[in-house]
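Subject: Predicted fold for Polypeptide N-acetylgalactosaminyltransferase, 615 residues

User T.R. writes:
Posting the sequence so we have a shared reference for the thread.
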Amino acid sequence: MACTRRTKTLVSTCVILSGMTNILCLLYVGWITNYVSNNGNVKVAGRTREKKFDDDNRGETLKIIERLDRLESVVNQHIQEKPLKDGDDTADQSLSDSLFAHWGHDLGPESRKVALKKFQYYGYNSYLSDRLSLDRAIPDLRPDGCRNISYPSSLPQVSIIFIFVNEALSVILRSVHSVIHWTPSHLLKEIILVDDNSNNAELSEHLQRFVDETNQQRPDFIKVVRHDRQEGLIRSRVSGWRAATAPVVALFDAHVEFSVGWAEPILHRIKEDRTRVVSPSFDNIKYDTFEIEEYPLSAQGFDWELWCRYLNPPKSWWTQKNQTAPIRSPALIGCFVVDREYFREIGLLDEGMEVYGGENVELGIRVREIHPVWLCGGSVEVMPCSRIAHIERAHKPYTEDLANHVRRNALRVAEVWMDEFKSHVYMAWNVPQQDSGIDIGDIRERKALRERLRCKPFSWFLKNIYSEMRTYTETIAYGVLRNSLRPDLCVDQGPHSDNIPILYICHGLTPQNVYYTSSQQLHVGGLSPTIDDDDNKCLVDVNGRPRLLECSYASNKHMKLSWLFTQGGSIENRKSKHCLELVESTQVDHGYQLALQQCSSQKWTITNILPGNVL
Ligand SMILES: *[C@@H]1O[C@H](CO)[C@@H](O)[C@H](O)[C@H]1NC(C)=O
Ligand SMILES: *[C@@H]1O[C@H](CO)[C@@H](O)[C@H](O)[C@H]1NC(C)=O
Ligand SMILES: [Mn+2]
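User M.O. replies:
I've generated the structure tokens; pasting them so everyone works from the same file.
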């Protein structure tokens, strides 16, 4: 799964994403890194996720990391990705920092080398995993009350599906061991291992031996499905589903560990109502130490790029004051349990999604299946009493072109399901809505499915299921904002802390996203996805200086945030009548900086105008 945010060093972003090949990414990250170290707060560990639950307490560094996190998806989009190259010193150093920060101090140099190599390959510490018991117990992190709930003895049986590609054997085996150990045996019908064409022969061999041994005791208990070419995670899940025979199927990554009592709460909910699609709650297995890190209870959602994200549970859940109650959730983050036949009825997953495997790709799955489920009358929920620990990788071991696939899948979802809100996905990915040049494949079948299931409009989903999501129906133009004086420079939100917009070499990543609205606001930076996130930043004339302030704040304070803008014309503040312009400056890198001054007819353009609007 990709939506969980990882601990990340600043420089690793580019290393991981581009194999150090992309100058722009390095420039950008270099700039951020300098900024951070110049300000003396170089502590870079921390999960973004925490901020959702601790809103008042966010360090600047965390914000920057968050930006890099958001950046990641967009960086991908712009960068021809290459896998990590052997012998790249910078890459090695950053990997090494990441692996050995909290682990391996007493390891000899040879072992370190081996461990590092494996870490680079898998994105987690498989060297350590190989040395941990396959049967280790993980802590029982269920909230109070779960232990006292009793469930009917007759619950539907479940098929467990694990999908993987090039996963460490010990990690797969631990997933299998722990699900066997923690699922009551009369409920566990079978385990299905879907190998999406791993190119590791040793893995297949060892795995097959384990399967054969197990099946000698319980014939057909473990099934192996092997793809003879890489199909991606989405079709892997469907392959697993095809092989399953139990009334309920559970689809998981093969790098998880189950916890006591995980199955009963979920199977009970599905038994009560077969249209419920249920996710367990997730804890983290740290990629370096393999320690279990407790995560707060969350619902699961997505942003407008359709990357997944954890959400605070809805108000209605909090007011029940019952931590064991299911959490209604707009989406799923990838691992879920569903009635096998119901899953078929609602159209499985979109097999038209051409995806090369990788964890982030699962986003496509989540979003894909959530819409049919919700819009067509089922429900999605997260069970607090069912807990599973999942390894969040430090980096994706195979990043080839990942974001392009995610973007393509997102656009498929937008075109099939999102009606007038599809513009939001195009805006978030910063691609033109018409003639995007992106081949999203044939979506007729999915559209027919939507017809057949008589799904509700997407606006219904937003209003009733995902009311936290912000919408941007007022936006009329989006893209990067350039001045004809220096078309190689773009308006950029600059460092978060000082709220000063800057000019920077155009890279088109999130910090350079600009949105102009029909209420004449200019938003700079990524679209804030939900009301629990910070508001968008608006360009404001503050005492004659260009500043970026939260739009709602600036608006409430009646500040000067309205701008007259026409494509190819000036950007003039409606109150102060000053224009946003470039002025020469020897103090900045690129020779120009932004200023507000008497209008001198400088010309600005913004990349895309939404269909039906004139600027
Ligand atoms: C749970 O059950 C045990 C024994 O059945 C009982 O002693 C305990 O008080 C119960 N706890 C709660 C929170 O209900
Ligand atoms: C809390 O929620 C659980 C699960 O839905 C339910 O079984 C239980 O009765 C609820 N407890 C209370 C006190 O409402
Ligand atoms: Mn995963």
